[in-house]
Specification:
2 copies of one chain form a homodimer.
Chain A (H helix, E strand, L loop, with lengths): L13 H5 L14 H12 L10 E7 L4 H8 L4 H6 L5 E8 L11 H18 L2 E6 L4 H7 L6 E11 L8 H8 L7 H4 E3 L7
Helix pairs in contact in A: 2-5
Amino acid sequence: MSHRPAPTDIDIHPLIAGRWSSRAYAADKPVAHEDVVALLEAARWAPSAYNVQPWRFVVFEKSADSAAFERAFATLVPFNQSWNANAQVLFAVLADTLTAKGTANPTAAYDAGAAAMALLLQAHAKDLAAHSMSGFDANAFREAFAIPERFTPIAMISVAHHGDAKGLPEALAEREQAPRARLPMGDLAHFGAWTQAG
Amino acid sequence: MSHRPAPTDIDIHPLIAGRWSSRAYAADKPVAHEDVVALLEAARWAPSAYNVQPWRFVVFEKSADSAAFERAFATLVPFNQSWNANAQVLFAVLADTLTAKGTANPTAAYDAGAAAMALLLQAHAKDLAAHSMSGFDANAFREAFAIPERFTPIAMISVAHHGDAKGLPEALAEREQAPRARLPMGDLAHFGAWTQAG
């Protein structure tokens, strides 16, 4: 089930409405390296403050280097390990917290989020399932891959071809097919003034 | 000049390749309120850790409430004020730094960045110019609009219809037409291991 458009209140571009965070991944179907690179290329063209481009990705392709993939996979929290058995690619998303001058970059994580969103949307454009997760041990990841202090691991994105939700544990299969939900617009958007609702 | 696709190394979706941060805004051409809401709707469907949706937007439409718009505009740094004279809408992007339990949300800014990217892409889908800026006084903004402590103003996004770069000061007009540039892929993507290049 790869088609699960957001029940939007207003029409938005189908690439944005159609992207969603699946957990049903196809077994044993590697993601082509050229697709992995296309996902990174989409991230590369994201905007950032002063065009600093503070995003970094450490990419783990199961089919290319299963040992490295397993070391990255081991940093996922148990719940995420449970449904990612068929994940083919893991992208660790890191932010460079410092500018070239060595001062703090206050928008590093915000800019990394923009790049990650481009990556997720490009995955959807290629009909790949992609899911960004904060549930991983950032310190364990840092240690396992000797990440320098200035770079902060923020998230892990898993990617695979879409699979059948029936292969998931029952509770997750249900969640996979439940209506997608978001806060009402009034909770997140305020016009002309801050209002306490949000 | 609204068509300025990224010179990508690899083909990516045209919505992502075609989005760019223009500074040439059309004068006196309001952005329809329904378009403003569509941009917010795109942001609304972004992914976030535990679906917490920590993004908030305070939206200023010049044509609807010019006094509020001017108060928000006044928090931009002088350089951004200089080229935003024709901006029609300002979106202040805020992150809710706390979870419902009152603990810190470590991915609030990253998730807000994803939502902002969706907003920028939806603007491009509507052939609107949109530009995310970190150059504003977040404290002044917080004070002017009585933003509660738990919400952090991260960026200001200005939106308008595309205009003519000839209307910009010479240095900016040149920058507007210069080739778009990003770091080479090798600086931002590492495969299987961290390498010092990035």
